[in-house]
């Protein structure tokens, strides 16, 4: 019996080598981080420890832009415009519902547990950096502005954001010099993922309306998507080293928080309890009520992506691994996963919504402020909007300041929360990644039958799906995968007979033909084109 269990464990480790190594890297990073803290390492040593993790994060973030372009366009190009609209509406509605539920759960837990102790206010707390009086209206308008960038190239490295500039009037008033705060809409560093998604969505829908005339463009993006995913799979083998260095470096950079450890421990427990309950109860129940299916297989299939999200603390960097797990282990249609996951990495911030609601009410409890029902509702609505509109801002600083200014709470206590944000950021990122998987599964349940009917109406879409499967098999095999069209096969047989070589004709089924006589079905076959040539411009 013991030998059988040992064989099963060994077999599991062989089949899931990367998963086991990633989970062990998380454990090793925590052990090394706490074990090396008493040594008081120098800044140069800490920099060298963080360096492999820094390179790993840069490599993963490098793949985000080409992955979104190729996967989103290739997925939507295989769908009708009506199906794309239904998929987008279903995804946004589902994400909005889960964000509202997460916010309400966080408010309930922080009210019941009450982690904020006003006596802690006697402890000296550093001043938090201020971002000005952020308006919820400006947050919403920035969200819409970023959806429609004026330059798609600029959107790859900059996004629009409203800032507040203090201007001294040229003519002083009689009562003295007054400082006027004016809004300034400018560009700030950071990839505008939402604008890129909107552009790729429109581009893919237009290609789908052109049908077989745009087949060569679809084939290009399908091949590009396969190349990038193959590259990402290779890069993920460096994840164990990068995750170990990231976690170890973060633990070594922490300051001593012994003075307020008891209060923050209860605060961390409240946030983690909310995130766990949202992950194991709220989202699975919502998934079950919609699909009537067991949610456990989704969780099992996404373990690798969840561990990677916890190690990197970045939903965008985990995006390639999430796509691979969702398609290979959970059986989700790639057209759905390639649309839902990039969109979810931008607007699905259930963990952020819950965290921000708990943080704001926790600060109110520290200041012994009793929030009214209207203020609690304001917190819940603002946290939901801020989690969607400001999800790309690190540490949720601007989101928390926005909510604090909305309900009139001081922003000075925010800096105290940064001492434990390194842990909570990783947990809520893992929750967001798992929530994206459930969202994609729900959308597939709602639209899969319509997608199958659309594939039956369009033969070329079924051919593209077959080519994608061939590319997947080629990615996991050393031998290239070919499909020989009927015209190519006929040409090969004709040449074989004309040369009088009967052995080739008899062994055609068992011998791999020369690649010079074959044409991949996704290429522009000069013998039997799979799509009709483009007409003149005026006819289009």
UniProtKB/TrEMBL annotation:
Region span, Disordered: 502-540
Chief location: membrane
Domain of life: Eukaryota
TM regions (residue ranges): 20-39, 59-77, 92-113, 192-211, 231-252, 264-290, 302-319, 376-404
PANTHER family recorded: SODIUM-DEPENDENT EXCITATORY AMINO ACID TRANSPORTER GLT-6-RELATED, SODIUM/DICARBOXYLATE SYMPORTER-RELATED
Family: Belongs to the dicarboxylate/amino acid:cation symporter (DAACS) (TC 2.A.23) family.
Protein name as it appears in the record: Amino acid transporter
Provenance organism: Caenorhabditis remanei
